[in-house]
Amino acid sequence: MLKEKYPYYLANKPVFANEDLEVTDKYSGEVATKVAMADSAAIDAAIGAACDAEKACAKMAAYERKAILEHCVIRFRERFDELAETLCIEAGKPIKDAQGEVSRLIDTFQIAAEESVRITGEVMPLDISARAKGYSGMWKRVPIGACSFISPFNFPLNLAAHKVAPALAVGCPFVLKPASLTPIGALIIGEVLAETDLPIGAFSILPCKREGATLFTEDERLKLLSFTGSPAVGWQLKAKAGKKPVVLELGGNAAVIVDEDADIDDAVDRIIFGAFYQSGQSCIGVQRIIIHERVYDKLRDKLVVKTRALKMGDPKDPETFIGPMISEKEATRLEGWIKEAVAQGATLLCGGNRDGNMLEATLLENVDLSCKVNTEEAFGPLASLSRFSDFDDALDTVNASQFGLQAGIFTRDLYKMNKAWNTLEVGGVVIGDVPSWRVDHMPYGGVKESGLGREGIRFAIEDMTELRLLVIRTPEK
Description:
The protein is of the alpha/beta class and about 475 residues long. The protein has 16 helices and 25 strands. It folds into two domains: about 260 residues, Aldehyde Dehydrogenase, Chain A, domain 1 (3-Layer(aba) Sandwich), CATH 3.40.605.10; about 180 residues, Aldehyde Dehydrogenase, Chain A, domain 2, CATH 3.40.309.10.
């Protein structure tokens, strides 16, 4: 069960400043707990403390940083059930999805522990011409300094971890703003970090109102901003971030192509997972299903049968696959998209009904290309089907989107696989599976409206470090 109230963390210390933020059980709608919210003075103090901690964090030996991360791994394993239940309550995440996210949290910190002791550099010859004779060089990576992190509601643990863990691995102090709808997971990470001997100021975790978060973006003392969330907010923050580098992990309306040689039953099982796991609230959830005309009818019919069979209800029930969306507002928005598509000629294959913030798993076909279902990010249990006859046309359909996070392709043709990898304007191409697949050490991120930069621990470390060159001249005798 959740505690009655939670503090925020300012410079490594819990602060019970108030009980201003009510966090609801997303299934029952009842208030589950209360959380202290940071004001602008607390955020300013946290940034100052992070900057003061830069030298101490940078001086930490690799084995010390590794020990911090390994402590987190141990404690997260010990608190596994508590963390999963927390996700189930604050995010409405079906318990199996919640357990999966806790497992990924542990993986992410374990990977960071391993990477913390292999942040390497390179020796390079400089004597490429006569004028450089006697010169040699080498470079290494050094921490960029105090970082600002903003994480979203849909993966309250693991998407925070993808910012926090690499920062700890490399020695960057940070301030983190978790989503106000789901702050508890990040605060539990704070509880665990507070058990360590990190330098004072190494971390602050500060739930706050969106309008109060200006300093997270605009403060010039911060050396990096990493944001995960909606494109509308992300690009606006980038415009206001000033000189600091910015990493953006934004949205998508991910597509999967099913070619005529695919194993239909396997594709159906994976598409059901990709479209509807954690109630579709994933930026790489399957939203567009593009099917070869020779297998279209068979695949469509199997998808409809399996979609209708998904159990919707209490996320605490292990049999539940579709839980609540994060809010009734979001469920109502998506219900409106479905109605818009049907009004413009789309066929509702199954689902479409809403009760509060519960929306049935929904499949549509023959959706007009101008409808939001095709052009925007649904972020809920909704996917549309379309058919193709030429593989190149299917690739063009994927690329027609303003987004470019990941794409999945079910094909056994090596040449088509290579063409897709060379042609698709996305951050990642997944063959034989849905775009929703991710493992936590791979480079993950998008292009176009889907963002800038890459996460995945080693790749996040690159953004959180700067190259520092050493040049050595050896005079001739």
